[in-house]
Amino acid sequence: MNGNAEYWRFDQGAGNWIFGLVCVVIAVVLLRLILRERISLQGSMSYLGFCVVVGFMALFPDVTGRVAHALGFWDMSNFFFCTAIALLAILHLRALVTLSKVHLRSIALAQELAILQEKLERSQRSER
């Protein structure tokens, strides 16, 4: 490939702005859900980071193109898909960690409940 690759610029179409606007809308909805306490801040920070990175890539394609070229990507679309797949893999890993914590906590709660039921049964038997 040639070293003087030209990337899309702002004046070549509204697609960049539309995609960036979609990312901003998603981020605003996410922030609204956080403020209304529908979702936790800790669990949504990685998703918010994903929206910020992809939105930045959409709104500043010249910078993204230079970064892509510096990292060895000749096509900006390959860089975008590689970045999106990596960020989605991080989101998936985060979800797996959260799911594992919830699973371990549910096991601990079931064990605590069994112990409390056993204590209750013992105290009821001793009262008779």
Overview of the structural elements:
The protein is mainly α and 128 residues long. The longest helix is centred in the last third of the chain and has 52 residues, at 76-127. It has a domain at 12-99. Helix content is 80%, strand content 0%. The mean pLDDT is 83.
Please provide a brief summary of the model.
With 128 residues, this protein is mainly α. It has helices at 15-35, 41-59, 61-70, 76-127. The chain starts with 14 loop residues before the first helix and ends with a helix.
Rg (C-alpha, Å): 24 Å
Mean pLDDT over all positions: 83
Between the first and last Cα atoms, what is the distance in angstroms? 88 Å
Tell me the strand percentage band: under 5%
* Helix content percent band: over 70%
User: Any low-confidence stretches, pLDDT <50, length ≥5?
Assistant: none
Name the helix and strand elements from N-terminus to C-terminus, one letter apiece: HHHH
Largest sheet at a glance?
none
Number of helices: 4
- For this structure, the quaternary state is single chain
Provide the structure class: mainly alpha
**What is the strand tally?**
0
Features:
about 130 residues
Secondary structure: elements and pairs:
Layout: H1 15-35, H2 41-59, H3 61-70, H4 76-127
